[in-house]
Structure formats: C-alpha cells, structure tokens
Amino acid sequence: MKKYIAPIAIALAAITPFTSVQAAEKVIKWRLAETWPTNFPIFGDAAKQMVKNVDEMSGGRFKITIDSRNKHKAALGIFDFVKSGQYQMGHSASYYWKGKDINTLFFTTMPLGMITAEQNAWYYYGGGEELARKVYDKHGILSFPGGNTGNQMGGWFKKEINSVDDLKGLKMRIPGFAGEVLAKLGAKPTNIPPGELYTALERNTIDALEWVGPSLDLRMGFHKIAPFYYTGWHEPATELQFMVNKKAFEKLPADLQAILKIAIKEAAFQVTSQSYHESAVNWATMKSEYPNIQVKSFPDSVMAELKKANNELLAEFEARGGITAEIIQSQREYLQKSRVWTDISDKAYLNNL
Amino acid sequence: MKKYIAPIAIALAAITPFTSVQAAEKVIKWRLAETWPTNFPIFGDAAKQMVKNVDEMSGGRFKITIDSRNKHKAALGIFDFVKSGQYQMGHSASYYWKGKDINTLFFTTMPLGMITAEQNAWYYYGGGEELARKVYDKHGILSFPGGNTGNQMGGWFKKEINSVDDLKGLKMRIPGFAGEVLAKLGAKPTNIPPGELYTALERNTIDALEWVGPSLDLRMGFHKIAPFYYTGWHEPATELQFMVNKKAFEKLPADLQAILKIAIKEAAFQVTSQSYHESAVNWATMKSEYPNIQVKSFPDSVMAELKKANNELLAEFEARGGITAEIIQSQREYLQKSRVWTDISDKAYLNNL
To answer: A312 vs A110, A181, A188, A316, B177, CA distance in Å?
Structure first.
C-alpha cells in the first residue's frame, strides 16, 4: 500500500501549497486552564501568546483554547486539572502546589534568593531543569518556566511595619517559602487567588498582601485601603509555570512537541520584558497619580529577623533529606557562585555610575 | 483539478503519519554565515540551536546550514552577505556595521547605557523593535536580537590605566559607540574579528582589547600577555544579531516564517542564561587557575572623563537629526524611566542583602 501511495503524495505536494496539505491533516485540539481571571494583563497575555505561537507555527494543525478562572472556577486547581488530564495544559505558579508536593515550592522563587538572571542560569545550565523534572515526573506533569516577573515588591500593608512585633498575628496573603518564613516570625500567611485579593483586603480577611509589583498592582486598587508599599525581599525572581500533561504530550508528533516547547519558552521570555516595561512605566507615574502611596523598606531589624528565620527554615527543610535537600543545596551553591559574578558585573556597574 | 485532488489528500492524511506527509513536501534549504570561528562556544551554540529549532519544528521541511568564518573567510562581511542574498541569514552583531550605516550602531549595546533587562524591555515594549526595523528596512534585511551576553568586562590591558593620559594613543580593539568614546579621549580604537584577537595582541598590533567576559575570554588566553582585567562600563547589555534577507523571508510560507522568528528568539534567550552561567563558573575559579590576572576598575577620574566624552558624543550624534536622533532620544528616555525601577528593585535588593 505504502509504495503505491508515496508517489501520489509527492505529486500532491508538488501542485498544492503547504497550507492545503496541512489543512487536510487532523487538527489537534487542547485546552489550557489558567489561574488568572479572563484577560488578566501580562500573565494572561503569556498564555495567549503561547497559543498564538503554536497555532501559527503548526499552520493551524494544533489549536489550544484557554479557560480562565471565571470559566473553570478553580484558580488554584490547575495542578489537579493537568495531573488528571482534565486539561492538557495549565498556566499558574509552581509554589501554589506546596500543599500537594512540598518540592514544587522551590521552582518559582525563593526569599532572599537568586535574581532573575541567576535563576535562569541555574535552571537551564546549573541543574534546575533536571530537579524540576524529578519533582514533576511522579505527577505525570511536565513543568516549564512560564514567565518571570522579576523582583517583586514586598507588598501592601494597612499599618507600617516598625519592628518584628508588628508581624506577629499579621494576616497576610503571601504564598511560597516566604509565607513559611513569616509564619516562623508569628505572622499568619495564606494564599488567595488574584481575583479575590481586593475583597479579602477590604473585608479584613487579611491585613496585608503581596501581589506582584507596579506592573500589576496599581490597577488592583490596593493602595486605596493599604497605602504602605514595601520594597521586596521575598520574591526576587518570580517564575510562572506552564504545565503539560505528560501522556498528552507524548501522543503529539515530534514536530508539534518541539513547537509546543519553544512556543512556551518564547511566551515566557516575553513576560520578563513586559513586566519590566510595565513596572518602569507605572513606577514613573505612581507618585503623581497615587500621592497617598508611601513607599517603605523594612527596617534593618526586621530584615535581620527575616534572614535568620529564612536560614533556619532552609536548614529544617534540608534536614528532611531526599530531593528536598538536593534542591536546597543546588540552589544555595548556585546562588553563592552566581552572586559573585552579579556583584562584579551588573551590581558594580549600577553602583559605579 | 482541485476538486478531484482534495479527497485524495484527506484520504492520505488519514492513513499516513504527519512525517510522511511532510517528507513529501519540498524541503527549503537556507545558508547562514556567522562571524564566529567554527564551533565557537555560546555564540556558535546559538546559531546551532536556532537551526535545530527550525529543523525540529518544521518536521524537517526547513534546513539551514551554517558557514563559519573559517569557511566564508569574511568574519565582518555578514551584513553584505545577507543584504545581497548570498546568504539568506547571518549571525553577528549590529554594531559591526557602523561603517556601512551609522544607525546600526545603537542596537547592540551603548556605553554607560541600559542593562540587559532594561534593554529588552525597551526593544520589545519601548519602541526599539520599530526603530531597528526602520534602520534595516532600507537594506532589505530583517534584524532580530541574537543573544545577550549581559554586562561585559572592560577588557584586557598590557599596562595599568591610572589616568586618562594612559588612554592617549592606546591601540585598542573595541567596537561600537565605546570605540568612538575612547577615540574622543585620544585612544585608537579598531575592530578585529574574534578569531584574530590573540595574534593581534601578541604582535602589538593592539595594546589592549575587550572581548566579552569570563564566559569566553579565559579560553582565548589574553591573560598571558595582558594581565590587567578591567570591570565593565562600555557594554552593559551586548546583544548579538540574527539577520535575515527580507526577500527570502517573504518567500517562506506563513508557518515557516513563524517558526523561524520564534526559533531565533529561543536561541537568543539561551545565550543570556548560558553566558551568565559560564561567567559565574569561570569567575569562581579564575583566581586559582590564573593567579597572574589582576582585576581592576578604572579610577574615578577616568570614569568621569568617559562619561563626559560619552555625553558629548551622544549630543553630537543627536544633532545629526533624523533616525539617529530618534534612536538616541528613545534610548535616553527609556534608560531614565527604567533605571528608576531597576534602582528600587534589583539594585536595592542586592544592596540591602
């Protein structure tokens, strides 16, 4: 049969344009669930960009539709959606799954840890990618970096933080390892999906929250009810996450696997530049547009306690051994090595101007 | 004819795997000329990665071969190769073409200018891409960012630089705007392809050179003959360049155009992480492996003169008007705006640790 078909296929290719041949192929249809509300800026743009990349590069053979939290109603359910195969893909953040698998915590950002350039180098060339694979393999999920927001602001507070005592009993929306650090100092950290943040702050469900930075915070209106805006310590390089159901991925032909992986990477890369741009633009006009915002940094005494608690907590987690210890050690070693280079390059450059 | 063929194409698609259909299509073959010697690390890896991306994503329908300078013998002839269509693509750096079109100078990096994160934000969201298009359109070339090395070291010098007088008459390999700045202070800047740098330094054709940083410099052996290694001021965010002949690009079907553009972007993104990694790793062992290297920073008096000359030169170029002024103004405004954000985010974070 094959011998007979091949010459016909060649004859067809010769007289029909590529698009006709492709249109004749079966269109693969996938669904993606995202943590974000519909048309959420930057983060939502990344998923849209990824979908557009896949559509264009596959010549329309691979179509992905996006369901926002408004549709699927489970902003923090993306991990389960993708693990079960209910959705083939998700866009969210790895540290939201710390309650399901503590080792997912380390792949978003770590307080007092690596900045974006360092973390990317660690992930792609310093062993991070292999560690992420180990963690996610057992869940049948492929995890990919989904866009880095860069250094995040330390959050919005209703009251000024003058000493570590002001953190005791403080109800704050702060996910990831930073939440654990604050808990160690007596705060009550929680995670709340982005679509519910303003209401939670307004109704005093929480006293403070961190979200992202000037790129995304100002349009949320937090400044109206929590005017103290602190500089960052807790998320120096927040990387979002694209998740892919592994079985679904393995069913794709090789070219569409390559297209999906590279489409993801391009979309993620754009998040970094778009975040930086939006932060710069919004910061530049923030003081004139929102004169009530008071930009603050945590006092040295609070920073010292945060560092101490962070180190103690890392040691506690490391003592669990296994992959948890492996990740913490890998990140610590890489931070030390890469920070020396950061200090002599970008930091020295910026400080010497 | 079409009515008759369509059902056959559908029938074929149903019983043959994608790869067979694709293999039956005409394979498009392109050639890329790179500035770098064969198997040059990082930079050469980027071109190889781009070619691999295109091959995999197109299912083998689009093949690009790479000619290094060892083959085409014209390391700094890439612009002409691509403009004329002799090669469909090139991998090089935009500031190498300042003698052909002065406005190409601004798209690599600018002395005392934006760092990588700022420059990417400017390029993709602050108007840089549109300006690059204006400059390259008239040459029939599409220019794409080709990988950012990050902050580069200030170079290797045979003699220590103690005052601006030590720059007078200094023969230095330093391309781009930084070369113009040094010329203003009495130095004699020149550009020499990477494959010829060591010999030029050894034979005293030049007294000093800058190449990249610890990621690539150490294996070149410069430290053996020029042991003073200066920190950077002149190339805070060196972006390489992929060039594509516009007519060749326009002949590609839409899916392969998308594949090429996104393949380029992924390969370029990897350069940043790979450079950072190699810099960190090599810097960490540099002092033990090469104890004769003396790391220096230019004295304040020299830095002040460099800044002054840079500002004067920017004003002179701006006075030319047209697109030159447009680019300089766009970069200046964006640097001011984005640097305020850099100062409150990464810089404050690094300085407060």
So the answer is: 14, 9, 18, 6, 49
